[in-house]
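Input.
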Amino acid sequence: MKKWKYLTMTAVLGSALLLGACGSETESEEATNGSQTTETAAAGDAQLTGSVSGDGSSTVAPITEGLVEEYAGTQPDVKVSVGVSGTGGGFEKFIAGETDFSNASRPIKDEEKAKLDEAGIEYTEFQVAYDGLTVVVNPENDWATELTVDQLKKLWIEDGTTKKWSDIDPSWPAEEIVFYSPGTDSGTYDYFDEVILDGSDLVKSATLSEDDNVLVQGVAADKNAIGFFGFAYYLENQNKLTAVKVDGVEPTNETIESGEYTPLSRPLFVYAKNSALKDNEAFYDFMKFTLENAGEMAETVGYVKLPDAKYTEGLTALEGLK
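Output.
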């Protein structure tokens, strides 16, 4: 996983705190005698200990990783561990009772809800950001920089043929297309399946991976390649990829937030176990920190923040679970 831009922000904040610590000994004593340290004040709570565990979407991961890094500065004695096994894989661990929360780049499925109900696990859904699922091609590809939804279906749905660019448009090269896709445990795959594949099979020749960086590298290395993944991964690699316009609309913060970039705009989620929120003060505090800071972190790592009212709704729901 890359070191995201929030690390720079963290360094600046850290420098500011160090500069503030260079005052006189008397000033330090006065600060120490205050009701809270700087870190505690930032967290808004007493210092906590404990552990928190999560897993799930690689798309949501950059937001969560940034929040974990920032949270460690306010609650250093709380250990937050987050795996990246894809939305489906994350829900499997959530259902098995192995995690406190599950990151997802799609809404929970009915069968997953049923399994959680069977396991006696109650949960709450929180939205944390918007994403635009981004279709990308190699920069040497100057013919397929704009595609319609119908062309995406023709490209990606398995039809028993070896697909060439010229099959999509006769004026395009008669060269075989190389496909890169998130794995089937990925919420990004599920969302693409819903809005593009319509439940049909994905092209069998596609290289699948739960690691979006593998997909980035594959498309960047082959002029006949095409792939898709979350908007943030495109932004981090836009010097070696071209984002495809869909029905004439380019994925940007503005088009994703407005819904103009359709049908590939989507919300991102965190699903939290209610019993853990009640019994684990550290987890409750981390989720509160998440909802208070997810919008800013989403923008920092390349996604789109929700309207402030959405985060307020989430915090109200969280407070009701304490």
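The first helix runs from residue 6 to 20.
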